[in-house]
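Quiz preparation item.
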């Protein structure tokens, strides 16, 4: 999923922060938040719009679950 689609998903679901998993093989996620309608990473840089992002972390009772889009 591309950045614009994720931004739309976050707005529709009233999310301000999300943990993104860039590649299926990645062990760690990247903490991101929505600022002024743009998805920014933890260093306050805008996420690459051309990058295809594999999935996200969903938190249930303190445990993270990796989910593809």
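Solution:
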């Amino acid at each position: 999923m591309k950045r614009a689609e994720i931004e739309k998903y976050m707005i529709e679901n009233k999310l301000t922060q999300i943990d993104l998993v860039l590649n299926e093989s990645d062990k760690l996620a990247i903490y991101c938040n929505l600022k002024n309608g743009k998805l920014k990473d933890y260093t306050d840089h805008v996420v690459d719009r051309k990058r295809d992002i594999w999935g996200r972390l969903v938190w249930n009772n303190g445990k993270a679950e990796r989910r593809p889009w």
